[in-house]
Amino acid sequence: MAVIESSLNHAMQEVRAISCGLELPQLGDLTLAEIVARLSGRRTCAQCKAVYHLMSRPSKEADVCDTCRGPLMQREDDRPEAVRVRMEAYMTSTRPLVDYYARSRRLLAVAADSTPEAILERTLGALNARLNRRSVEESGTDKSPPGYS
Q: Using CA atoms, how far apart are residues 12 and 133, in angstroms rounded to an integer?
């Protein structure tokens, strides 16, 4: 048990060092229609559990796994109706927390309406911009004209 606690403490120290003390939750911003389309298009092989998507990563043969030829299934919680119910729960329970971080200017909201690679690039760019802004504020060396922060 002590080894696990020590490892956890070490990992947390590394996270704190990397984050420079910056508490910045990230929000991948999507419309409800996009969320429903993404989740309801997911298919999983019933045998080997490989994951496909009807639009972004379809199998070569409809409803058949490319790896093991098993049937592709849609999970119950990925059906459009179930996704909408999950999003209603999100709006009730989690969205107030997102609003809190947005009001306190500690939310990194990034449009998530493209490829994973593009979203990562956009996120890293926004994070670097936020870190640079913070560094300038802390050093007091902001030489930009008023209104250009």
A: 25
Among 95, 53, 48, CA closest to 78: 53
Long-range residue pairs from 86-93, CB within 8 A, at least 24 positions apart, any chain: 87/32, 87/35, 87/36
CATH superfamily of this structure's domain 22-138: P-loop containing nucleotide triphosphate hydrolases (3.40.50.300)
Structural domain spans, the chain: 22-138
Residue 56: CB atoms within 10 A of its CB come to 12
Q: What percent of the chain has pLDDT over 70?
A: 79
From the list 121, 131, 107, the residue with the least C-alpha distance to 25 is 107
Question: Would you tell me the crossing angle of helices 80-93 and 95-103 to the nearest 10 degrees?
Answer: 50
The residue with tokens 């990925």 is 78
- From the list 108, 147, 82, 135, the residue with the least C-alpha distance to 25 is 108
Write the pLDDT tens digit of every residue in 100-136.
989 988 899 999 999 889 999 999 999 899 888 877 7
